Amino acid sequence: MRFLIDQKLLTSHPDTMLGRMFAMRDARGAGAELVTPNERDEFVVADGTTAACFRVALEYYTHGQMRCPPNISVAELRDACDYLLIPFNANTVK
């Protein structure tokens, strides 16, 4: 599954993994080695995280909170948040 995400949305949360990665890419220029697009000019991030779980994690970037739906376990969302460096607490998870 593909997600189209404005890079500014990610960099507006600099303490997260994606925020850091894309901020470093901006600081180092389009050829930054840490974050490089694939042959389709896409970035592959959160490998191993399900699309459904990644979609929930993206809610943090857009709303500052995430709602854990019944089809995703709290443990799965917590693991994704740990990997993505997204805060997982009573203020961010509903």
UniProtKB/TrEMBL annotation:
Residue ranges of domain BTBD10/KCTD20 BTB/POZ in the record: 2-94
Subcellular location per the Swiss-Prot or TrEMBL entry: Cytoplasm
Main location as per UniProt: cytoplasm
Keyword entries, A-Z: Cytoplasm, Ion channel, Ion transport, Transport
One biological process term in Gene Ontology: monoatomic ion transmembrane transport
Alphabetical list of InterPro entries matching this protein: BTBD10/KCTD20 (IPR039886), BTBD10/KCTD20_BTB/POZ (IPR039885), SKP1/BTB/POZ_sf (IPR011333)
GO CC annotations on file: cytoplasm
Pfam families: BTB_3
Name of the molecule in the record: K+ channel tetramerization domain protein
